[in-house]
């Protein structure tokens, strides 16, 4: 398999973790670039699960190796397009204006966990959202979402009106739209910088999935959790692959990956890992001294319902402008998750 000069330099400079069991013995080794901390579930569980599925589907002929620190989160898609890595994970909200169709899965108000959302997301992408062609230049391997995002703060929040004026780390996409509607002051920093941003007092809090309380050590710097049933948004992620690297694999391997790994199978498995992370972090919050959990009151939920409706209408209009039947895709996601 071809390895560009850029890729060789990147591999030499990166922290490398083994994501597979016996990659040195395989015929093909795919390099993965990841931006999350080494112990985060993305690296500790998601990529290893992906690797396990790849190895099983190809009878050990293909494996992976995981590289950390190649580039910041917003640069991952360009990294894969340029051939500096074969695979990566991207968070669509980090690249304002580059992705619109992906915002449909980020909307608040869906009922269901990350597994249900990830499966519904892939099915809606396969039928509708792919027509927007927003991942041009890379192969989409999986699409997935984390669980409902909630507010984590340094000081307790017990009323939705207290969010107004708070300095909150909020990613782009629908999260940014919701943050504006709540009149929060948005601070844009990538997820790996959240801990230091909160510890320094630059931000009052962060809106992220519950999983992040363990994954990014929020129990230490944002001890108070304010839960809005259904969440404030859902983050949209993709596993992507360099198209040329995939094309260079033998046809039987390509078929095995397409039939047994890529698409819905691995999207479902990643969703399960997000869900397990939420459960574990919720339990950690309950048992960590000084941490509190406040569930939004019925009045707060009613107030947020109006924001959900406004944001949803705007996103459907935005995605429709991309030539996608956004209403049908939205209805499909709701229907699939309801199953």
Throw out a few tags for this protein.
single chain; alpha/beta; D-Maltodextrin-Binding Protein, domain 2; 2 domains; six-stranded mixed sheet
Kindly report how far apart the N and C termini lie.
Answer: 42 Å
CATH H-level homologous superfamily name of the largest domain: Bacterial extracellular solute-binding protein, family 7
Counted beta strands: 12
* Count of all domains: 2
Order of helices and strands: HEEHEHEHHEEEHEHEHHEEHHHEHH
Task: Describe the protein's architecture and organization.
This protein has 339 residues and is an alpha/beta fold. It has two domains: 5-147 and 235-276, 3-Layer(aba) Sandwich (D-Maltodextrin-Binding Protein, domain 2), CATH 3.40.190.170; 149-233 and 280-332, D-Maltodextrin-Binding Protein, domain 2 (3-Layer(aba) Sandwich), CATH 3.40.190.170. It contains 14 helices and twelve strands. Strands 1-3-2-4-11-5 form a six-stranded mixed beta sheet. A six-stranded mixed beta sheet has the order 8-7-9-6-10-12, sandwiched between helices. Helix 2 (41-57) links the parallel strand 2 (28-34) and strand 3 (62-68). Helix 2 (41-57) packs antiparallel against helix 12 (264-287) and helix 5 (114-127) packs antiparallel against helix 12. The longest helix has 24 residues, at 264-287. The N and C termini lie far apart (42 Å). Residues 1-13 have low confidence and may be disordered.
């Amino acid at each position: 398999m071809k390895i560009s000069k850029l890729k060789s330099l990147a591999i030499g400079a990166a922290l490398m973790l083994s994501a597979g069991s016996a990659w040195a013995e395989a015929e093909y080794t795919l390099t993965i670039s990841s931006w999350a901390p080494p112990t985060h579930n993305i690296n500790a569980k998601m990529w290893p699960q992906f690797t396990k599925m790849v190895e099983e589907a190809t009878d050990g002929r293909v494996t992976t190796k995981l590289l950390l620190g190649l580039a910041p989160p917003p640069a991952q898609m360009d990294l894969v397009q340029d051939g500096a890595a074969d695979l990566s994970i991207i968070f669509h909200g980090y690249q304002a204006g580059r992705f619109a169709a992906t915002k449909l899965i980020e909307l608040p108000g869906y009922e269901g966990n990350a597994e249900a959302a990830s499966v519904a997301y892939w099915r809606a992408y396969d039928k509708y959202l792919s027509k927007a062609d927003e991942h041009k230049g890379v192969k989409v391997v999986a699409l997935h979402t984390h669980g409902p995002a909630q507010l984590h703060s340094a000081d307790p929040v017990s009323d939705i009106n207290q969010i107004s004026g708070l300095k909150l780390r909020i990613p782009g996409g629908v999260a940014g739209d919701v943050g504006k509607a709540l009149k929060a002051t948005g601070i844009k920093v990538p997820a790996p910088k959240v801990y230091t941003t909160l510890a320094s007092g630059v931000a009052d809090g962060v809106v992220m999935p519950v999983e992040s309380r363990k994954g990014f050590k929020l129990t230490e710097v944002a001890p108070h959790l304010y839960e809005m049933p259904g969440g404030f948004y859902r983050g949209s992620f993709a596993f992507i692959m360099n198209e040329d690297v995939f094309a260079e694999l033998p046809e039987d391997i390509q078929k095995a990956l397409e039939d047994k790994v890529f698409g819905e199978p691995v999207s479902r498995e990643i969703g399960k890992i997000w869900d397990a992370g939420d459960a574990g972090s919720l339990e950690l919050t309950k048992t960590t001294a000084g941490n509190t959990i406040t569930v939004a009151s019925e009045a707060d939920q009613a107030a947020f319902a109006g924001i959900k409706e406004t944001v949803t209408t705007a996103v459907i209009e935005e995605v429709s402008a991309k030539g996608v039947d956004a209403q049908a895709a939205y209805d499909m996601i709701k229907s699939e998750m309801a199953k």
